[in-house]
Fold these 3 entries.
Entry 1:
Amino acid sequence: MTYKIITVQRHIMDTQRRYPQARGEFSDLLSQIILAAKVIYREVSKAGLSDVLGATDDINVHGERVMKLDKFANTVMIRALDHGGHLCIMASEENEDPIPIPEEYPSGKYVLLFDPLDGSSNIAVNVSVGSIFSIHRKISSGKRGKLEDLLQPGYKQAGAGYIIYGSSTMLVFSTGVGVHGFTLDPSVGEFLLSHENMQIPESGAIYSCNEGYFNSWSPGVKEYILQMKQNATAENKSASLRYTGSMVADIHRTLLYGGIFLYPGQVAGPAPKPEGKLRLLYECAPMAYLIEQAGGRASDGLRRILDIAPDSLHQRVPFFAGSSLNVLEVERLIREEQA
Ligand code: P6P
């Protein structure tokens, strides 16, 4: 068996050869995201120590107080990407407003939206967390990016991916020609190809949701969960519930093992949240892109996630994603309740 040692950069260059029109700048942009991920990995992997050492009393080289990890990750992403000349604008889960490219740096033809450290509240209990990114092409006129460049539907993404900081650190991304996973080898500091062309199973026995909200869900969603509990799978096993509270970890498992991840809207109870919790632009759209590229399906229960035209930067949507047969079934039950 030949064990190919392929770095992300080599894999991107090889892919690029098949798409001559794609110039090197996309590869360079991805390399900058990878650099940011390595710096974030370095801090996340010793988070417990920094908590113990009371790192918040430190002042770093920039004269700033050392920040909480999610704020740290946000600064790393911005600092690694704002001067590379490939981006015309950015947006982050941590920033209320769009992040312009500083005037002193050249503006490029790509747009980056990201959640720098999703699930960061789980770090204290050593549960996997992750960074999520979505890349679009600039569509606005003029040199610098505008809000319209950020508010694009997910089907127009040029690429998307996540880094999961778990028992191993992995980069999973797609540029429209399949989903590929790379595992970080800390001894050489490289992400090496470990999961080529990831394909999600057509159906799965795992459902992933916060059942604590069960009573707030719509009848169709409740029916689906009860069905998952009652239905035996082909192997005559009952379904399993797996939920970490970190979207990146739950989506990563869903990609590999199949089944469905769902964060429905909460339509009943004292504090209804019909749009749910997850953000469209830098959580659901990039994850939907990956799930579809791996042969799965992702919707808000009624509409394909990638078709939703965003109307605001931090817009939330209900999210159902995973094996196509699982998502089709919950969509059928939601349509039935609406009939
Ligand atoms: P809940 C983490 O805070 C996050 O944004 C996602 O990573 C995760 O899927 C979700 O929220 C968990 O939310 O309400 O179940 O704690």
Entry 2:
Amino acid sequence: MPQSYVIDELISAKAIAARIEALARDIRAAYHDTDKLVVVGLLRGSFVFIADLVRELDLPVEVDFLEASSYGDGMESSREVRILKDLRGEIAGRDVLLVEDIVDTGFTLKHVIALMQTRSPKKLSTIALLDKPSRREVDVKADWTGFEIPDEFVVGYGIDYAQRNRNLPYIGKVRFTGESGT
Ligand code: PRP
């Protein structure tokens, strides 16, 4: 059972939308000559971000998903990345954009990039909505980052705490209140 907590807004829905518009402009420029961009969302956390991002991308896109997990329901990375669901499509010779919600220790992104590279995409880029550089344990950085954030426990806009709060329209910071919750 998670401890009881309150959520303070860290990044508003409006700020997220504005940042996604700017990121989409950069991605469009980087892939302006693509015949089709395969946008790969890393489940589950990226489902809201990828939905908003692809709608801002004025490019021919295909959407696919990969599910990786290293946290389970806990707050600590297991440092072992498990692929729970693989892509439906082939990415060999394709332009690929990997979409992550948050880069924390970096284990997930590093593992998934290495996996994608074994499949010989034409060009692979990565985007993360949030980055916590102070938590990094392995050397990896997304090509595009929405917001660098301090080492706070965040939820919302796809990100959960024990599978809750993914549906918040903003990014919030969890503040534990110390009482035992339900
Ligand atoms: C979270 C998050 C990232 C990863 C980042 O996934 O969505 O994919 O952890 O952490 P890292 O940089 O320390 O590897 P999680 O395993 O919680 O699965 P979820 O996306 O289904 O919530």
Entry 3:
Amino acid sequence: MDRVFSGAQPTGNMHLGNYLGAFRNWVRLQDNYECVYCIVDMHAITTFQDPKTLHAQTIEAAAAYIASGVDPEKSVLFNQSQVGEHAELAWIFNCVARMGWLNRMTQFKDKAGKNREKASVGLYVYPNLMAADILLYKANRVPVGEDQKQHLELARDIAQKFNHDFGVELFPEIEPVIMGEATRVMSLRNGQNKMSKSDPSDGSRINLTDDQDTIAKKIKKAKTDSELLPAKAEDLAGRPEAINLVSIYAALGDMSKDEVCAQFEGKGFGDFKPALTELAVEKLAPVTNEMAKLMKDPKHIENVLADGAVRAKAIAAPVLAEVKAAIGFVR
Ligand code: TRP
């Protein structure tokens, strides 16, 4: 059976973008694949994290996955740092990947900015750890957003070079799984920027911890334009904020953007926003309520993660053993 692996960092609040772009799709994959879902806390520390906050946000992330429908019985759900094999394989991949490959990574350039010299070494080799995450489970299907595609290509190159250098067929080909409508949810304040937990404006995103009134207020204040909605989605071109709200509606309602436009053709945002609010509240309430319930019992979530780590290790340890044998390590 094909195996799915995906992960998200426990930095900042979980929001609508995480839900529509990631969690909801992970849930759908559970029925057809063996799925491994990871909270990548070791990726998180490539930039400094306050320990208490990191701990709390790891619990919050687990609650968000579960509340969204990730079933810890069906899938393996764990946090990365509890499975030491990730770090071990990442070291080996540090010795397989080439400097030149990492130098091409646009996310490092964006995140490090002008101050490259002050970025952590971990931030630079971050994609090698990501390759280790995936390949440790011989996962061949990896659902990610557009921004992670370059990292997946690197993971593919690492797998190929490893297989080639050591004359083995150990690692499979990785296929990115591209997700449906609104995989890229944009900021409510600026349709050019991705909805992000690191945006200083809380009004730019809908958090999975927001209550109904807050959701309503944020949608009401969302940036829009004064034009009407067209009959076809293609005629939204050049209106990033309008596209974003229509995409969110489409994703929440399991519709295409064309269907949303057809429904609201000729209407302005004064009509569209209340409809969007109603849909958002209806679809998100079960998730946010369940999440709030789960967060009341952090011990339970810790137990779920510990159990997931044991199951993850059971898959990862034999693969790492194979890798070590291929390299020639005495065991
Ligand atoms: N780098 C991913 C992100 O920031 C998170 C991640 C880490 C991941 N390891 C992964 C995603 C393995 C998919 C597979 O979104």
